[in-house]
Design a protein that fits this description.
The chain is an alpha/beta fold and about 450 residues long. The protein is built from 15 helices and 14 strands. It has two domains: about 170 residues, Alpha-Beta Complex (Aspartate Aminotransferase, domain 1), CATH 3.90.1150; about 250 residues, Aspartate Aminotransferase, domain 2 (3-Layer(aba) Sandwich). A hairpin with a 2-residue loop joins β11 and β12. The protein binds ligand KE4. The site of ligand KE4 has 21 residues, from α4 and α5.
Length: about 450
């Protein structure tokens, strides 16, 4: 926390009025579809109206009515260092003082590429873009260009951005809004995408047996955040690596959410897997618009101008975003937060579990490091959530009630059962204890 800045006033429970947000939302809806620039912010999964924010500092958010919250989405992942980390702010200010965009290469981009390659051993070459969606779209085109094949395999409940060929049974906002297949995605596009169940190795093996020579790539979230948090089984990971290698397809890990979040080397470091391509976003841009995709040099060298697979971008590798991403990755490299994040996560997980048990609420809690989801379930006994089939049985209205109970106690959780929560390196033990106490009150209310 930056001590020189005024500290946000502790959340005043009586100030749960959000009149200014209500007015701002009414105006925004007249101008912007749904009043939001991303449906994930629309509160579709919890009802009510989105809250409009004025500022953020460290682990706190302040809304335009002056209410403060402990932040458990961190801009949906990027803010692992907390908001306005001094090292990141200083880096952006330095970059700003010399220019904002050149449309020409800079040394800073090579320095960030170096940091990414040093952190993620499976990445030998990397190309920067402006979002996780762009990274996924480019990786799919590259996999198809490299293999000369059309079919992409993805998994229900996994979300890879709003890429036409991947917006089929996507998780995240699409799943929350109950519209897994988006209008506007043509049948011609969707036919080249096969959607299987996560954690079902037999399904994958059966598909490869029949269509292995058509499959360009298997794309997955190595730890899923977009149906709520789901971890892969060892057998599932082994099946993906074995089948793709055996049939000359590419294994693409979408680490937009998990990259630099679960470890400096991402989920692949924790899980001991070596994909052929990796997509990155969120933390790699330190909260500014930056994505990246990278992997085997022999694959990446098929990208223009070395190879023939087209990909381009006016603001790719933007100096301000590169500065924010570089400062963030250097801070994570120099002062590794991961052990502490895991300790705080274990404290939060234990607290949520015992609060639910005391309240007699059936939940399945899944956590890896500082990513966690508490799935609300309808039956008397918790059912392990291993994929979309089980995740989608969640009691979303019970989650919504919990969400608003936490909002009224100054805790800002993801506005959907089908999202993971994140906390930052500047969250404290006291913050975790306060969150657990609020959960106990909200669950028993
Ligand atoms: P962006 O295009 O939003 O930068 O990245 C898309 C993306 C790709 N892959 C994974 C695993 C992702 O989680 C995302 C984006 N995540 C959502 C939240 N689950 C972003 C929130 C939003 O869309 O507003």
């Amino acid at each position: 926390m930056n001590a020189s800045k005024p500290q946000p006033a502790p959340h005043d429970r009586t100030a749960t009025r959000r009149g200014k947000s209500h007015e701002a939302f009414a105006r925004a809806r007249r101008l912007i579809p749904g009043g939001v620039n991303s449906p994930a912010r629309a509160f579709g999964g919890v009802g009510g109206e989105p809250i409009f924010f004025a500022s953020a500092e460290g682990q706190h958010l302040t809304d335009i009515d002056g209410n403060t919250y402990l932040d458990y989405i961190g801009s949906w992942g990027p803010m692992i260092l907390g908001h306005r980390h001094p090292r990141v702010v200083a880096a952006i200010e330095r970059a700003l003082s010399t220019g904002t965009s050149y449309g020409a290469p800079t040394e800073a981009e090579s320095h960030l590429a170096d940091l990414i390659i040093a952190a993620v051993p499976s990445i030998e070459k990397v190309r920067m873009v402006s979002s996780g969606t762009e990274a996924a779209m480019s990786a799919v085109r590259l996999a198809r260009g490299f293999t000369g094949r059309d079919v992409i395999v993805k998994f229900a409940g996994n979300y890879h951005g709003h890429v036409d060929s991947l917006l089929v049974s996507a998780g995240s906002a699409a799943a929350t809004l109950g519209v897994p297949d988006s209008p506007g995605v043509t049948a011609g596009t969707a036919k080249d995408t096969v959607v299987l169940e996560y954690n079902e190795p037999q399904q994958l093996e059966d598909l490869f047996r029949v269509r292995g020579d058509e499959i360009a790539a298997v794309l997955m979230e190595p730890v899923v955040g977009n149906m709520g948090l789901v971890v892969p089984s060892r057998e599932f990971l082994a099946a993906i690596r074995d089948q793709t290698r055996r049939h000359g397809s590419l294994f693409v890990c979408d680490e937009v959410m998990t990259g630099f979040r679960l470890a400096l080397g991402g989920a692949q470091q924790l899980l001991g897997i070596e994909p052929d391509l990796t997509t990155l976003g969120k933390i790699v841009g330190g909260g500014l618009p930056l994505g990246a995709y990278g992997g085997r040099a022999d694959v990446m060298n098929h990208i223009l101008p070395v190879g023939k697979v087209f990909q381009a971008g006016t603001l790719s590798g933007n100096p301000l975003a590169v500065a924010a991403g570089t400062a963030t990755l250097e801070e994570l490299r120099d002062h590794s937060p991961y052990e502490r994040l895991d300790r705080l996560g274990a404290r939060l997980e234990a607290g949520f579990r015992s609060a639910a048990e005391r309240a007699g609420v059936t939940v399945w809690v899944a956590r890896v490091g500082s990513m966690m989801t508490m799935f609300f379930q309808k039956g008397p006994k918790a059912v392990p959530v291993t994929g979309w089939q089980t995740a989608s049985q969640s009691d979303t209205s019970r989650y919504a009630a919990f969400f608003w109970g936490m909002i009224d106690r100054g805790i800002y959780l993801p506005c959907s059962q089908y999202e993971a929560l994140f906390f930052s390196a500047v969250h404290t033990d006291a913050d975790i204890d306060r969150t657990v106490a609020a959960a106990a009150e909200s669950l028993s209310a």
